[in-house]
Amino acid sequence: QRHLVESGGGSVEAGESLTLSCEFSGYTYFRYCMGWFRQAPGKEREGVAVLDDDGNLRYADSVKGRFAISKDNAPNTRHLQMNKLTPEDTGVYYCAADETCRGMTTIEAGYFEHWGQGTQVTVSS
After folding, report:
1. Quick one: which of 7, 35, 95, 104 is 20 to 30 A from 75 by CA?
2. pLDDT, tens digit, for every residue of 57-110?
3. CB 34 within 8 A of CB 74
4. Beta-carbon count within 10 A of 119 CB
5. Are the beta carbons of 69 and 79 closer than 8 angstroms?
6. What is the pLDDT of residues 7-66, one digit of tens each?
7. CB 28: neighbour CB atoms within 10 A?
8. Who contacts 61 (Cβ-Cβ below 8 Å, separation ≥6)?
9. What is the DSSP string of 69-113?
């Protein structure tokens, strides 16, 4: 059974950092497309960052230079390093995965079949 679990959310003050992690299991794909999304209260879900199945990174303009996707030695774990957080970064953060996201021109939720349950990030001013 395919499963994604996010962790690492919390409450911080503006200017601080947080690292989110996404562990996915049950996949037999050799390569994955993996993305991070967020949803603020009263707003639509928006794409934040993606590491596609070709190894390319993309970031939303609002987080470029502050957020970065990385992976550690565990093959099915990805991290989202978030620096210089602002109150506008507040929301529930979701990781998503699928075998491929080829053809995706922006960071689009519709390309991802599998989603985690979300983790809350709150940034106070």
Report:
1. 104
2. 999 999 999 999 987 767 788 999 999 999 999 999 999 999 889 888 889 999
3. no
4. 20
5. yes
6. 999 999 999 999 999 998 877 666 789 999 999 999 999 999 999 988 899 999 999 999
7. 6
8. none
9. EEE-SSTTEEEEEE-S--GGG-EEEEEEEES--TT-SS--GGG--
Amino acid (1-letter code) at residue 61:
D
Between CA 43 and CA 49 the distance in angstroms is 18
Query: In the block, which residue shows the tokens 């699928």?
Result: 98
Q: How far from chain centre, in Å, is Cα 56?
A: 14
- Cα separation, 64 vs 116, in Å, equals 23
Compute the residue count for the chain.
125
Q: What φ, ψ does residue 25 adopt, rounded to 5°?
A: -135, 160
Residue 63 backbone dihedrals phi, psi, to 5 degrees: -120, -5
- Is the distance from CB of 11 to CB of 122 less than 8 angstroms? yes
